[in-house]
Amino acid sequence: MGSVLTRRAGAVAVVLAATLTGCSAGAPAPKPAPVPSGPSAPPAPSGLSTAAGRTAASALEPNDPAQELAQLRTALEAPPQPFSAVLTVELTDGTLTARRQGVVNVSDGLQTGALGLVSVEQQTEHRAYLTVTRDATFTRTSDRAWVRSPRSPEPLFADHRAMAQALLQSDPASFRGLARIRTMRGGMGFHLVGRLPLTAVTGAFDAAARERLTQHRVPDCTADLLLDADGRLSELTLTCEADGYRLRSTTGLAEFGPAADTPPPTDL
User: Largest CB tally within 10 Å, which of 13, 25, 153, 194?
Assistant: First the structure.
């Protein structure tokens, strides 16, 4: 398993290196890099998901809307299974463009991972690295030394299940049926669209973004949510607007595989 995880992390590191070193101060905002398709696991057949390193026959096929909705509710109520995935988060509000990407692991209700971050605001670029283990958080800015601190309570990505359930509770019509998942493995997923109060989506934003939303008194956001057949997050887009201010955030998970503990950085 160790060699598999090393290859997955290596594939992401190549993309992160290109993202983090290919921009200079005053350069345009970084463009999204393609999600890597590391050699750790071959693409599963369309519509099938990979969990714990095995292919599960959980394909979705267009069906009666009521049956599709029942499938979605079943997927949301099922206990979450451990997994690893490539996480990509992009955020922009007209003055700030930020992107982070890396491998995350979810096991026993705990998120760990190693991410690279790059942001551009007013033509000034900021680069950083983040590693979160089970018991500590490690951060590094540019080429400075790593700083270890107690594990942060901030999630690496939001609880999409709570958002999906909130959308269904407020309006069952927010379920729009099945839609194609836009990753290399493809397949069909559950699509939901609706509005949620800001308090229901704050987990999708870091402290700086939450402060901006509060300053502009944004009351709610439009949520566009795509889940795979197993109820895992594929893509979440949040659009938050008020009085001419607009913040848009997209979170995606891809290349699912078996979960493992994220180790501390090797160059402490």
Answer: 194
